[in-house]
Amino acid sequence: MGRRVKVLLIGFGSVGRALAKVIALKRKIINSRYGILIDVVGVADSKGMALKAEGFDEYELLKLCEVPRSGVNLFKPYAHQGVDLNILYSNTQPDVHVELTPSEYTSGEPGLSNIMYAIDRGAHVVTANKAPLVLKYKEIVSRALSRGVRIKFRATVLGGTPFISTLTSMRSHDVERIEGILNATSNFILTEMHEKLVEFTDALKMAQALGIAEADPTLDIDGVDAAAKIVIISNILERPLKIEEINRESISRVSLRDIIDAVRQGYVIKSIASFDVRGGKASIRIAKIPRSELFAQINGVMNGVRIRSDATEVVFIGRGGGGIETAHSVLDDIVSLSFEDS
Amino acid sequence: MLGRRLCVVKIGGSLLRDSKSYIESAQKIREVFVENGYKAIIVVSAAKGVTDKLVQVAKGSQEALRHIVEKYLEVAKELNSVKVIKRVNEELKRLEIVAGAINRSGVDLSLYDFLLSFGERISKILLVGALEATGVNALELHADELIVTNETFSDASIDYISTSANLEKLYSSIVDSPTIPVIEGFIGSTIDGRITTLGRGGSDYTATAIASLLNIDRVYLVTDVDGIMTADPDIVENAKLVRTMSYRESLEASLHGAKRINPKAFEPLEKFYSSKLIIGSWSKFGTEIVKEIPRELWGPKVIMNRASQDMSYMAIVGEGTSSVQFIRNVLEIIDRNGIEILGLQSYVHRPSLLVYVSSTYELKTLHLLHKELFEGV
Ligand SMILES: NC(=O)c1ccc[n+]([C@@H]2O[C@H](COP(=O)([O-])OP(=O)(O)OC[C@H]3O[C@@H](n4cnc5c(N)ncnc54)[C@H](OP(=O)(O)O)[C@@H]3O)[C@@H](O)[C@H]2O)c1
What we know:
The complex is a heterodimer.
Chain A: E1 3-10, H1 14-34, E2 36-44, E3 48-51, H2 58-64, E4 79-81, H3 85-92, E5 96-99, H4 111-120, E6 124-127, H5 131-147, E7 151-152, H6 163-169, E8 175-181, H7 184-196, H8 200-209, H9 218-221, H10 224-236, E9 247-248, H11 256-264, E10 267-276, E11 281-290, E12 302-309, E13 313-319, H12 323-341
Parallel strand pairs in A: 1-2, 1-5, 5-6, 6-7, 9-11
Antiparallel strand pairs in A: 2-3, 3-4, 8-10, 8-12, 10-11, 12-13
Chain B: E1 5-11, H1 19-33, E2 38-44, H2 50-58, H3 62-79, H4 82-105, H5 109-133, E3 138-140, H6 143-146, H7 160-174, E4 180-184, E5 187-189, E6 195-197, H8 202-213, E7 218-222, E8 244-246, H9 247-255, H10 266-271, E9 276-280, E10 287-290, E11 302-308, E12 311-317, H11 324-336, E13 341-345, E14 352-357, H12 362-374
Parallel strand pairs in B: 1-2, 1-7, 2-4, 3-4, 7-9, 8-10
Antiparallel strand pairs in B: 5-6, 9-10, 11-12, 12-14, 13-14
């Protein structure tokens, strides 16, 4: 039996559930491969929490995924009404706090307070929620440093790929420019418009029907999500930008007419995020890309980014999001934190 | 497996008519399988009539949509569980969004299959709720995460290699837990996560694929009849149950339109592991379908009257029915009774004989051949 790592999942929506499922299916394998036994000891959503200090077994984790939204408080006999981190922490003494609450870019809440709380209680943090990092990157990282805990956030940018870990590890490089397609939802919508020749609103409807776009898709289509990712990247590269400094164009103003005109001239229309590292400038803009170029061929829910440094150019292509892919990135972070601890 | 015998049990839509029938099915699963020490993997179909209604929803029928919403909500309320009611409501809301989008986008095949998949998906939530209400630990599996298919929407074929990897991973993490897993039949998803459907009767295919990929010996196909009959009992009143058939015979019968089993269901059984199919109702499992039958069981198994273009024909299915001896026997019967036939068709490598007759003789020939071939001593 491996070393136990006790994990709390705060936020139990699509990523939280996918993570519970992936842990249920892979914890035995991870244990036999790496000697790390991941025990989920508590789960919370906006209405309630479920906790079990010994850790939920595989069956219970899968069963948890059957509760309706905001239904963790129905998970008998482990359920509590309302969320109280004090209760969760005192009863379970978690090693890792996983923050999967919605990204909210005005106050960063509830993610920001939750992460600070976790750090103060001496838990390592893994977050897929971008907002706390976007608003208070420095504060969070230095607080973690001073308390001797670490924070990982591989799921926040190109969550289906190891983009963040690669970028973080390119320590000897001078990264000059980062550019690409960073938002799966808007890329899907634009792809639909090109392939089916439909207007933006119909493509959006389709994305919502397939569960790719949220009921309120503003963060994705107006470029806020992509800008947030650029802010996180800028912090990793120690050239921090504020999200307000990034100029954004919304894909909602792209019409079918624009698409047809672009295609006639041999272009496709994409939403491109770019960060000129030296110049300290970034934007999310609607761009006409020649059809033969790489970014023109990244379609649907795929994302792609190019990192250019003084030494090399690297390209990442992969799923930007999706519950299962994101969950794997979160799990990778949990496993690597546990490694570093031993 | 811990002394528990594994089997796959498909619950057909004919058994899932109304709010009572989910509880009844759950009780039967408990009595017949759980209490007898079986660990059953349940494959569930949509409630009776729902898939047809979904097809109408795809064509824009609000009426059909209302019907589905009412039907499934009624079952959910009967189960009297907050969890189930909320879950079903969530799914119905999504169904409404998908229905709204499909009418705008015209025929988008992936959206169409996604729409059809709600019939099985909600049915599964209800059956799991019903099992729990009867005291059985049950667990939802998700066909869209486990059953990987190609991209032939509406008639997809299973990618056995990817599916088998998924099934094994899941299986090893739940085999020790005291739970009855329930999965939707009929649906799968492409490698990039778009939902597909397996074609009419696709739940059988789901069931045989799971059994053969996990080396499970028995697949129960539970419906509202006791098994496969020698002829349509609505037409031939002396029709009897067929005890044993081979895959080949059964496949041949389905190719001639016997509506019991989807022909694709035999593919995994031929390719991977030859599970035994057991067909029947809760009161009687009358028919077994096995890979091969011994010589002494050769002979005609079923007779069906069919029409192709403007000709009627009798299809007599069974190992040995394409032999010269059998054909001579049939011709003798026909000759003796003064029936005129329009043609005969048989190939040595196929277990069937087709007798073409004009439609005036159709029923007479059917009764006669059934009497002579199946009712003798
Ligand atoms: N989906 C992706 O592919 C993806 C990819 C990368 C990063 N992310 C990020 O990951 C995070 C989670 O995404 P998601 O798609 O799983 O979102 P989601 O489906 O909306 O789930 C959010 C969860 O957080 C819960 N929550 C809200 N307020 C809370 C509070 N005060 N305390 C505890 N829980 C609270 C919600 O509870 P209720 O269920 O009660 O509403 C819900 O369970 C987001 O920040 C998102 O930006 C997502």
